[in-house]
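Following up on my earlier thread - several people asked me to post the actual chain instead of describing it. Fair enough. Here it is, all 1248 residues.
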Amino acid sequence: MLLLAEKCFIYMSNLCSSLFLEGCDGPLVSSLPQSAFRSSSQLSNSHGPGYAKLNRRDGAGGWSPLDSNKYQWLEIDLEQRTEITAVATQGRYGSSDWVTSYLLMFSDTGHNWRQYRQEDSIGAFSGNTNADSVVTYKLQQPVFAQFLRVLPLDWNPNGRVGLRLEAYGCQYKSDVASFDGTSYLLFSFDPPPGPSAKDLLTANFKSVHHSGILIHMEDQHGHALTMELLKGKLFLHLRKGTAGDFHTTASLGSLLDDQHWHHISIERLRGHVNFTVDKNTQRLQLLFFHKISFGGVSAVGAQRDHSKRNFHGCLENLLYNGVNVVELAKEKKVSAVGNVSFTCAEAVEVPLTFASPDSFLQLPWAVSRDSVSLSLQFRTWNRGGLLMTSELQHQAGTLWIYLSDARIRLQIHKAGRIVVDITAGSALNDGQWHSVELSVRRGRLILAADKADTSTTTTSGCRNLFSVFQGCMRLIHLDGSLVDLIKVQQMLIGNFSGLQMDLCGIVDRCSPSHCEHGGKCTQSWSTFHCNCSNTGYGGATCHSSVYEASCEAYKHRGNTSGLYYIDVDGSGPIKPQLIYCNMSDKAWMVIQHNNTELTKLRASSGTNQHLAYFNYSADTKQLGAIISRAEHCEQELSYHCKKSRLLNTPDGAPFTWWVGRSGEAHTYWGGAVPDSQQCACGLQEDCVDPEHFCNCDGDLDDWYPTLYPPYLPYPPYPPKGILNGPSEHLLSSDDFWNAAYFNKETSYLHFPTFHGELSADISFLFKTRSSSGVFLENLGIKDFIRIELSSPTEVIFSFDVGNGPFEVRVETPEPLNDERWHRVKAERNVKEASLHVDNYPGAVQKAPADGHIHLQLNSQLFVGGTASRQKGFLGCIRSLKLNGKTLDLEERAKITPEVRPGCPGHCRSYGGLCQNRGRCVEKYNGFACDCGASPYSGTFCHKEVSAYFRPGTSVAYTFKEPYELNRNSSSQSSSIYSDLTLKGENVSLSFRTGQAPALLLYVSSYYREYLAVLLNRNGHLDVKYKLQSNRDAEVFRSNARNLANGQLHQVSIRRVSESLSVQVRCTLHTLYEDMKAVFLTGAEGAESGEMDPEIARLNALGFTGCLSVVQFNSIAPLKAALLYPDTSPVIVTGPLTESNCGSSSSSSPYAAETTHSLSDHFGTVGTGQPVVNAISSDSALIGGVIAVVIFVILAALAVMARFLYRRKETCQTPESKGAKPDDSPETPFNTDPTSQSIITDTQKEYFI
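Reply from S.P.:
Thanks for posting it. Predicted structure:
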């Protein structure tokens, strides 16, 4: 018994390059004699197959089989190979018998049938709904066959199978040459023709063997091209010159050894060659040749090193530039080598397909243990499956032959144990035909796979469980006799169920592959799988990019500066690129190159010019895509000259030029205008030598820099001097913020038809108050695609590709109509459809296994509404992308009534990204974090501001003296004064030290009142308060362990009136001391006096360690001293340099910050985190060890410090142009309540 499973179909190839020809639609069946009709059975003589002609009432009015089941068929012999373009069906006249769905099969021999498929996946045709109406199908591609067979699948449930049939087409001319594996035709031009604009070679072939050389071409220069069939695939091998080796240039097709006709074409047009196999085409660059051999080649003449044999099979309608080569061979005008005949001998082999889990074949066979002989051939994609099993005689056990890990395995089980275990072969799941032979003679058991014997291994163990086999079988021999499978089909011998008889239904689902972007396709009998590892794409077909399309998108996921993979076109063809994202107020993409150092150039006489090449980290396509999408682009390259003429002005020919993006030469330079042949100084008339238009042309003995144009995409060619290479800086695209606001349900935007036939991905962001509405819709004749908000907590992605409406739903636990931005991403491909909303669990629905796969749309795409103007969307849609392309909603909204471009209000969605008391500030396109009230800095107020100190350094932050208050009549100033009196304090800082005792923070007033934070001699934290000058200080002592242990600790102190609380948090161990209250008495008038002796003693010792994120109420004194020393009321004694010692990742208390170059970056690149975080400063520790005592003098607190100009820490390199400040207001303290932020052009920052 043979057990196999799963349903399968055959792919119908296009056997001819011609399309459906006008006039090729004549009836083919109506004139045939009754002898041309056959069937599996007939209900009676009057229901015979000869009566199955369309619109005829002969006999019982049509064909009906004896039993109505799926094993019945009607066959028609068209008497010769014919082109078939359409079929029509009808029920049996005057009855309730008709077929509602059926399969079409074709054959040239009446055996080894092939199934016609629509869209390469749909096998079934819809039939009739009554007995009299005619249902006609025009075939998408014509087929060429002599025999036509119809297999009913379903019929009227109140009747039985009843059928009348007509086929339409025309006669087909077929000129055939047959080759036996050693013969070939030699076709050559004498003399060789001259060059032509176009050459075309076409043919059909049918192969007996899976390998062989079909065509070999040569030219007079020794170049050669070979088309080889190798294991059912066609390869093109090219050799350049007689001494060269063959290299494979293309590969197409699969399962081409199925003994059916396949079409090939090689078309050369102006240097480009289209190589086509059936319906798949590759474009190449090849020569054409004057000497061609068909069906093989002489081993000596071709020096062939590919297949060991020539082609074994038939070539049909072999045409070269319109010349019929087969006719020339018949007329002996083409040399024939070996046995070439002009008829195609058909091999009659009857395969069968195991098509469902219930499929089996049971044959009579008496198996003895002493003498056994069995052989068969099979082909499959599965790694496992049971091939056969049988009980041995005399209770010798049970024989099992099966596939396991793509190897043949034989076991004999007896009494629940394995007594014999043999394996043979390997990689037998490659879709090729493989043979299995089993023989037992005189006690010796031999198992062979593909004629190769294997050794026997005897084992013991438990009985295995086997999966069913899915695949094809043929040539089954039992004890040397071939099983007649036609008799099995006629139920004359054996028994079977669920088999597809007389055809092999194997389909190569990986040819062509639906895996995109380099995904590796693997398959089983019923499906395929795409391995997307290391591609940068994901999903069932590797369609969607796993990376963001811009630095702006990464920024709004909360990511800081660093290296990220950017995929500018999403699911488009351009590969992701590793790019440095500089996350400032705006997100900049920085593209590096390989030549950032100054290059010294030597003088040139003009013959040996210096060519400066700059290889960017992105290729040309990636650069072009990034530039086209960027809001702003900058590039800078400088040339330093000394006695080196550049333009040779005013009258000479220029010595130097640069090449633009399209390859044209230019002779103007940065600051000048095109075609001016000047430098910037010439245009501004301030060159050192006014006689010249460029400083370089004055033959001066000093170095002068000259800037190249800022958009220079390719290198110039300077004659002498020093060249400093460019980096490109690109401001992230506005695509991320491209939005439209829909204020009526009837409003919408329309765009051209969306084309996503096989793969479609759609992503966008929305915010709304409405409970429902359609985001977008595109319709076809029957197909459609739609995404809508069906309720406040549900999004639906629906479509129809011909299999009926299909829906994917995502429900969210929280309402989506909350006026916050929400992200939707939908994808549909041939395997599945998926929908994701925000970070909630997504939904995936599998596509039907054998359904329609092409999405065919023809109307406009509606966004924010529908064509019917019903269920429109109210709210904002942003960053709408279809298959990686962003739709310009804003531009379309500008010309559309009831739709407004843009959509403000982002802080409600992104305000949470501003950390550590940072304040979200709204912008038209996005937001910014104001870190003015935070001791942190950075894009999201996330970066610790830290410094490492040693004795000799101090910082004081000073306010105005008390009498200044009387001069200011501002009521706001008075409120500031009242707020900052000593009614309460909030103090926070982080520190890392190994010193004890040590003074960490000291706050004092002019009246001997103070607050001190210190470590005592045991390393415990002490907080010392004195709020009355005439009373002793109060000391609060923490019971925490020794904090002078070199680890980072965070301290928070809060006093409200007479209540004090202290929290201490360690990096490795957290100690939260919700401290008991310390009650202090009120303070009266204070007198001036000396510093507390203990504090003075600790101050004299100095402090060695790290202080970070120091804050006193709204003041960040350390941040002011480090980042804004020139505009803040701070006094710094000794050197003070920013460090990263306050970072929790820093393990050493003496750690200094280092500057990373892009070449230093390493690590795993993820979609959410950079390879290396922000390159924030180029400073290292200056002067070694530094110490500090921070004094915050709280005097009368009359007027706060003067307005602080905003500045930003930068990474300065020799290539920097000038500082750009961060646009976000990041001030530690503002002393002028009426002042406003001012940014000058010179404060802008460029990262290079």
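Residues 176-337 form a domain with the Jelly Rolls fold (CATH 2.60.120.200). That should answer part of your original question.
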